[in-house]
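Weekly sync, protein design subgroup
Attendees: M.S., D.O., the rotation student, P.L. (late)

Item 1: inverse folding check
M.S. brought a backbone from last month's batch and wanted to see whether the design step gives back something sensible before we order anything. D.O. pointed out we never logged the input encoding, so this time it goes straight into the notes. Structure tokens as presented (325 positions):
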């Protein structure tokens, strides 16, 4: 019969059988986590996926050794006890909460998992009076300690120089698709589309505070609109462009910043001073857009500069003409 837990217990209160049950469930959980990492990485980072698959197999082998020890000492009925049942025991995030981890985060998480498992086995070995169980727990502690070296060996086997280069290229591509592309689109929209209303308001009223309010409303409104539009346009599963919320944040924030850049100078009460600074900011924004296109999108710099500056100049001129009319 499985033991029932009305409340979380302390590690010092667990019996030998419960410690073995806890160790078995922990190894099985860690194996599932590594398998989930491998599954997520298989398409874009196949070499690293094989590393995590190898680590999952190691955890499964540990679980089998623990199960055999439990069968020898206590029989086939293993108590259902997990990390969350023990008050002073380390916990793991559920697999579904790890879905947003980056590749580097996964590697750091794996290192932390091995360190925590080693500490658990060291503490468990000191608790048990059975010599065979203590020997097994000490062996597993040593194995967890050596896992970092085993992971390095697996990496040397699977992560060749060409594989690392391919993974770095894929990581860069994913960064561009998820953050740079939507952020650049937002910056272009925020910088260019708000030029007309801001400078039209400026030359129509010559009132810097009213101009700032128009710019603030246009920038924030455009940021919210662009953010929701980007997030709703594609969930990223088929296109591989990354999570919708990440792209939405990148697009929305950069849209708002693009507009606010040349709206903020109108907090200066002197109209021509504010307008001169705003025009300089516009120039910097447009050249920054051209640089980003050249740096990340591989667009020839002068072609990007010509397109962005020409478009921005036309919108700026339209705003001044409309506001002065």
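Designed sequence read out in the meeting:
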């Amino acid at each position: 019969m499985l033991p029932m837990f009305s409340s979380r217990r302390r590690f010092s209160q667990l019996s030998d059988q419960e410690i073995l049950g806890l160790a078995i469930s922990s190894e099985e959980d860690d194996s599932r986590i590594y398998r989930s990492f491998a599954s997520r990485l298989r398409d874009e980072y196949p070499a690293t996926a094989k590393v995590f698959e190898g680590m999952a197999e190691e955890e499964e082998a540990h679980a089998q050794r623990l199960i055999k020890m439990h069968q020898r000492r206590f029989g086939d009925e293993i108590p259902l006890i997990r990390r969350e049942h023990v008050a002073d025991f380390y916990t793991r995030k559920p697999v579904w909460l790890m879905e947003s981890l980056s590749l580097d985060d996964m590697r750091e998480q794996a290192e932390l998992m091995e360190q925590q498992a080693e500490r658990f086995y060291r503490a468990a070995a000191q608790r048990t009076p059975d010599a065979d169980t203590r020997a097994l727990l000490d062996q597993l502690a040593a194995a967890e300690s050596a896992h970092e070296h085993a992971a390095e060996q697996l990496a040397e086997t699977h992560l060749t120089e060409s594989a690392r280069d391919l993974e770095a290229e894929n990581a860069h591509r994913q960064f561009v698709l998820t953050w740079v592309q939507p952020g650049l689109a937002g910056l272009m929209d925020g910088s260019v589309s708000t030029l007309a209303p801001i400078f039209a308001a400026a030359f129509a009223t010559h009132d810097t505070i009213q101009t700032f309010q128009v710019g603030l409303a246009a920038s924030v409104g455009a940021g919210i609109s662009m953010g929701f539009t980007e997030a709703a346009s594609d969930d990223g599963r088929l296109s591989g462009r990354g999570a919708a919320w990440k792209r939405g944040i990148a697009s929305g924030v950069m849209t708002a910043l693009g507009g606010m850049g040349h709206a903020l100078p109108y907090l200066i009460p002197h109209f021509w001073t504010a307008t001169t600074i705003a025009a300089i900011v516009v120039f910097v924004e447009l050249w920054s857009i051209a640089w980003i296109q050249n740096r990340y999108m591989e667009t020839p710099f002068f072609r990007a500069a010509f397109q962005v500056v020409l478009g921005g100049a036309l919108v700026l001129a339209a705003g001044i003409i409309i506001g002065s009319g």
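Discussion: The chain has two domains: 11-159, 167-324. Residues 203 and 323 are 5 Å apart (CA to CA).
Action: P.L. to compare against the previous round before Friday.
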